[in-house]
Every structure is written in C-alpha cells, then in structure tokens.
Amino acid sequence: MQRKQAGFTLIELIMVIVLIGILAATALPRYADFTSNARASEISGVSGGLQSAMNVVHAAWLAGGQSSPVTLEGGTSVVVSATGWPTVDSANTSQATATQLYNLLINQPMPSSFTATQTAATGAGTATYTLRASCSISYNAVGGQVTTTTSGC
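User: That's the sequence. What structure does it adopt?
Assistant: Structure tokens below.
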C-alpha cells in the first residue's frame, strides 16, 4: 500500500516561481509607465485649472473697467497687474505667495504633492508649482502665461 503524497513537488514549486518571475518582469515596466502618465495627467489637470482661473480673472478685469483689484462672484478679490492678470506680489497679502494665489483662484487647497515657489515683483511676479524636479507649472503674471513641463514626470 502506497502512502498518499501531501504538498507540492520541487519541480512544481520551481515552475510556479518561474511563472511569477515572468509575470513580474512584464508587469513592472507597465506599472512604471502608468505612474509617469498619472503624474503628467495631474500636472495637466492643475495647469488647466489655473489657466481657466486666470482667464476668468482677466475677463472680469476687462468687463469691469480694467481696475484692480477684480472682485469675482462670491466676493473674492484678486489683485491684478497692469495688463489684467493675477499678480504674485509681496505687497498683496492675499496672494503674496504662489500657494496663496493657487488657493485664492482655485478656491481649494493646493494638492500636497506639489511644492510652490514664487518670484515676487511689484505688480507682477512668477509662480512655479512643482510635482517633481522636471515636472512643473510656471505662471508669469506679466502676460498671464501658464507653461507646463511634463518631460520628466
């Protein structure tokens, strides 16, 4: 009478390990590509929101007689440059930093995955929102230009 064998043979275990290795080798590069695409999409989404908010402020400035500050619906007051674009200006306490400008225009906190820096200039300024070293959004208040860099996301 033969005893019934319990468990797996060594060959069966080796085959399972080889199959798991093959699956991991093909899935890992795809996962890395998805994370890069997700970061680029996040940058594009935030950039689009900022550009839309800037355009609303500029349109309100044009429609309201080209005076500063511009008061938006809901009573939000935004200081604008001589050309009608929101400023990043150390003299304006409501939007002296890039983070404050983002929170004011988008009306919600800046995502925690971003870091914000600014170069303040009287009546203008530049705000930069960085997700990674070469994955960022830059806003120049002089002409209202929003530049998005997604090459290294």
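The mean pLDDT is 83.
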